[in-house]
Amino acid sequence: MFTSLSLLIVCSVAFTQANSNNKTVLPVPFTLYYESLCPYSERFILNQLVPTYDDKDFAGLLANMDLVPYGHVYDPDFSKYKYTCQHGVPECEGNKLHGCAIKYIEDKSTLLHYFSCLINITQSVPILSYPVNECKNIVPDDKMLQISKCYNSTEGWDLFNKHGEATKNFFGSNRFYVPYVSFNRTKNENISVIGRKNFKKALCIENGVKHTTCS
Ligand SMILES: *[C@@H]1O[C@H](CO)[C@@H](O)[C@H](O)[C@H]1NC(C)=O
Ligand SMILES: *[C@@H]1O[C@H](CO)[C@@H](O)[C@H](O)[C@H]1NC(C)=O
Ligand SMILES: *[C@@H]1O[C@H](CO)[C@@H](O)[C@H](O)[C@H]1NC(C)=O
Ligand SMILES: *[C@@H]1O[C@H](CO)[C@@H](O)[C@H](O)[C@H]1NC(C)=O
Ligand SMILES: *[C@@H]1O[C@H](CO)[C@@H](O)[C@H](O)[C@H]1NC(C)=O
């Protein structure tokens, strides 16, 4: 009881200090490599990433976040926009939609809630195509218009390619799994495993932050 209380105090002091100096303390960069229809990726976003962002004690630690929707794509031909995604055509559509949303929705909270709404659908029903027309009410109309244009043009595939390059540059020709949680743009199996199970804990470790939920 006493211990957890004192940890909380230490934590809030740390945050206050950062603010009172008016310095933006940039958190360690966080990158998530994932696939739109991989059940483990879906669960990570829904059950770890979104609740962590919704926790005001942790949102700041995600200020330096990159989402990379791509994962396992077989024999991609970037120049011809030809791809075979691990979970089929709907996954390619989903990755493309996510890529456009990441580009056009600057507000991370809106972006993540848009994704959790989409995932709520793809998790619960077998889908023949990605639900690109759902959850539009979460996104401001002007952003949704940009996303639609992006999705229905080569811009969507160019972003898809960009995430493909990022994934390839990061993993090289090594085998990898998604979701892959990376900090500081480096590969570290240990922290990725911790992060997948207990994302808040990984954020605390990487940023040197103490918090009751991390102990
Ligand atoms: C922080 O910035 C705000 C607005 O720019 C200013 O009013 C405030 O005095 C600053 N605080 C410190 C501790 O520098
Ligand atoms: C998921 O869907 C159910 C029913 O369709 C709804 O009650 C729930 O609020 C949704 N959750 C999210 C995170 O959108
Ligand atoms: C792309 O165009 C189709 C057909 O016009 C439309 O149904 C769909 O809503 C558009 N995609 C998005 C993400 O808006
Ligand atoms: C992040 O990476 C940089 C450059 O490789 C290194 O100097 C720094 O110590 C790393 N920070 C953390 C928190 O891992
Ligand atoms: C991961 O953990 C293992 C076992 O604890 C350790 O031997 C290894 O050095 C760690 N790797 C990294 C990159 O921290």
From TrEMBL:
Gene Ontology MF term list: oxidoreductase activity, acting on a sulfur group of donors, disulfide as acceptor
- Which InterPro entries does the UniProt record give? Interferon-induced_GILT
Work out whether the entry's keyword set contains Signal: yes
Keywords linked to the UniProt accession: Glycoprotein, Signal
Instruction: Enumerate the Pfam families for this protein.
Output: GILT (PF03227)
Output the superkingdom of the source species. Eukaryota
The residues the entry assigns to the signal sequence are 1-18
Keyword Signal in annotation: yes
Record field: transmembrane: none
Which PANTHER family does the UniProt entry name for this protein?
GAMMA-INTERFERON INDUCIBLE LYSOSOMAL THIOL REDUCTASE GILT, GAMMA-INTERFERON-INDUCIBLE LYSOSOMAL THIOL REDUCTASE-LIKE PROTEIN
Protein family: Belongs to the GILT family.
Its recorded name reads Uncharacterized protein
Its source organism is Nezara viridula
